[in-house]
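Hi support team,

I've been running sequence recovery on a batch of backbones for a student project. Most finish fine, but this one hangs at about 90% for roughly twenty minutes before it completes. I'm not sure whether the input is malformed or the queue is just slow. I've pasted the structure tokens below so you can try to reproduce it. Let me know if you need the job ID as well.

Thanks,
M.K.
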């Protein structure tokens, strides 16, 4: 299959098919005039070879490169989901969760490349591509540097270097470094969420100068992503976060945010001009010429899908044909058109305009097919019509079952990559590429992503927290827990005394043992009867029990000795319980009063009042008004409370 996918400032992209593996590939033909720049060709070959060595899930894979008939070309993986530029131009904007996911993925890819000494130099929305499932890739790692050293201009006069996303150091004419990629990426993500791009002036010079004055202003509406973008958008390169740090921070932000909604990426559909010749090369007519396609009935027309969109230029989306011979402000140093040789295509603006913008690239469409043949091996294209079949659906199958299904369907196993997943059990397939039910040549390799299960989590420290709060903290990290209880003299009842694995990285679902406080241990009340008041009080204080003392007379217990206690010895009580002690005051003694001369009635009342009783002596007058003439014990005698006093009357 051959189809025109899109066009940009650096060249034209075609869809082709790798006949040896049965996969779709993208073939990018750079403008043919670049072949005259020997420095560019030398740099292009070196950079393309280096880019092909990059192996990261978020970097577009380069399969082949070369030069034919004056046009350098690249062959790379075909991504059918369009670019971030297409996505934004359709009116869509990224949610904070979606932006955090993309930030982490792209930053991870940049960290991988930066660690190996590579700098992209042209991060912008049109260089960020999506596959059909919305996963993002960085494109053009192989040509951005080579083109940047071609004075930032294309042979037909279009401008490559993108001032809209240039870093302050690039704006000042300094060499781009790894930090330049970070600044450009900050601009891209800011635009992707808000739809607005700061520091864009009316002219190229105004845009570049504004960028050298201050840090990027990040609005608070970017929520959790705002601090991260501020760290990326520092005016001074040395102050910016590294790609590795951004990837780490973005991962933490993702964990705190809801799972992002799937992106509404484009679905590529072949144009009316697409062809799928088994053994012959078909030249497609230019999109604006109105001529029918060679393999289509007369009257057919070719349409150009906007899957790989035109690169942003220094003055926005400048018309490429009108840019012929135009020069921007010399300060930008991005726009000088190299002089044309007489008879070159650059000397034929009228002819190019008559043929349309794509006249040169469409004229080279046969070359696109030739490149596809080079990728596949010309023998296959000429002599073998491959059998095609639908790819099996192996998602959520175990790896062993998935491989068996792939081979049974006539395909072969491709690469296997492992990644964490909160939704797919460990050992099962998270995704496959190509996707299920895709029409593929038999023998095509189907790559698998296998789940490692959820990523490890750090066990939070919950010691000292209330039980409910500790349980909530563990559940939030997808951890289970068990509980035992112990007495504690220092931890409040219901709070956590201790736990297992605090601060360790463990698998989700790991059981964390918690020890919950029951408060202080109960106290066993000692036997205090017979002890002195001082000794009894000391024993109670030693086990943190309170004491209350009640005094009482006792004819049998010495003064100051405990006669009884309020809690039975051996019983258990809570710490701080007050124990009442009854302490002896000794015998209750009273002094016998003088009753002589009192009437019998008066004498009896006096004795009763002080706890003594009256006994009438035998032969005495029992009349109440009779006078007392004698008594025993005699007045002033000290006797026990309750004793008898004998009186005699006349």
């Amino acid at each position: 299959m051959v189809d025109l996918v899109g066009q940009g400032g650096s060249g034209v992209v075609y869809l082709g098919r790798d006949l040896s593996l049965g996969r779709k590939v993208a073939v990018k033909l750079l403008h043919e005039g670049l072949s005259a720049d020997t420095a560019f060709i030398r740099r292009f070959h070196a950079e393309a070879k280096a880019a092909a060595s990059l192996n990261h899930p978020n970097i577009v894979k380069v399969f082949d490169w070369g030069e034919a008939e004056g046009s350098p070309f690249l062959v790379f993986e075909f991504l059918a989901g369009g670019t971030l530029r297409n996505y934004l131009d359709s009116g869509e904007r990224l949610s904070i969760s979606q932006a955090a996911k993309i930030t982490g993925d792209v930053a991870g890819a940049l960290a991988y490349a930066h660690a190996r000494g590579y700098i992209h130099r042209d991060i912008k929305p049109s260089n960020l591509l999506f596959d059909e499932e919305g996963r993002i890739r960085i494109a053009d790692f192989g040509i951005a540097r080579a083109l940047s050293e071609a004075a930032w201009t294309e042979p037909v006069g279009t401008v490559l270097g993108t001032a809209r996303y240039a870093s302050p150091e690039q704006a000042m004419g300094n060499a781009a470094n790894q930090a330049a990629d970070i600044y450009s990426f900050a601009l891209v993500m800011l635009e992707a969420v808000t739809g607005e791009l700061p520091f864009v002036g009316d002219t190229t010079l105004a845009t570049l100068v504004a960028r050298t004055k201050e840090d990027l202003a990040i609005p608070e509406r970017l929520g959790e992503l705002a601090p991260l973008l501020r760290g990326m958008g520092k005016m001074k390169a040395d102050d910016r976060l590294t790609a590795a740090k951004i990837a780490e921070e973005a991962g933490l932000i993702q964990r705190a945010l809801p799972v992002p909604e799937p992106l509404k990426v484009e679905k590529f559909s072949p144009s009316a001009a697409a062809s799928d010749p088994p053994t012959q090369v078909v030249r497609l007519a230019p999109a604006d010429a109105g001529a029918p396609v060679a393999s289509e009935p007369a009257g057919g027309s070719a349409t150009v899908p906007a899957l790989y969109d035109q690169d942003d230029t220094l003055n926005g989306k400048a018309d490429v044909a009108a840019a012929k011979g135009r020069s921007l402000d010399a300060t930008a140093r991005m726009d000088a058109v190299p002089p044309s040789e007489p008879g070159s295509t650059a000397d034929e603006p009228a002819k190019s305009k008559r043929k349309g913008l794509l006249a040169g690239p469409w004229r080279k469409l046969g070359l696109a097919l030739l490149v596809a043949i080079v990728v596949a091996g010309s023998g296959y294209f000429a002599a073998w019509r491959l059998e095609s079949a639908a790819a099996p659906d192996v998602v959520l199958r175990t790896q062993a079952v998935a491989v068996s299904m792939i081979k049974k369907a006539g395909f072969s196993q491709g690469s296997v990559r492992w990644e964490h997943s909160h939704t797919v059990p460990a050992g099962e397939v998270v995704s496959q590429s190509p996707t299920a039910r895709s029409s593929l040549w038999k023998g095509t390799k189907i790559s698998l992503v296998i789940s490692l299960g959820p990523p490890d989590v750090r066990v939070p420290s919950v010691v000292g927290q209330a039980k409910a709060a500790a349980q909530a903290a563990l559940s939030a990290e997808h951890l289970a827990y068990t509980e035992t209880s112990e007495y504690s003299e220092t931890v409040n009842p219901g709070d956590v005394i201790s736990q297992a694995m605090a601060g360790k990285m463990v698998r989700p679902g790991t059981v964390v043992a918690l020890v919950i406080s029951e408060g202080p241990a109960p106290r066993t009340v000692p036997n205090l009867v017979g002890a002195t008041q001082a000794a009894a009080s000391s024993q109670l204080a030693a086990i943190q029990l309170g004491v209350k003392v009640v005094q009482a007379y006792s004819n049998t217990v010495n003064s100051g000795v405990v006669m009884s206690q309020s809690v039975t010895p051996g019983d258990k009580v809570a710490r701080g319980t007050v124990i009442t002690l009854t302490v002896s005051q000794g015998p209750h003694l009273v002094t016998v009063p003088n009753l002589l001369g009192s009437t019998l009635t008066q004498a009896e009342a006096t004795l009763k009042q002080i706890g003594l009783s009256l006994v009438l002596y035998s032969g005495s007058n029992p009349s109440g008004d009779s006078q007392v003439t004698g008594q025993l014990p005699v007045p002033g005698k000290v006797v026990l409370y309750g004793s008898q006093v004998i009186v005699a009357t006349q």
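--
Follow-up from support: It reproduced on our side and the slowdown came from queue contention, not your input. The chain has a mean pLDDT of 79. No action needed from you.
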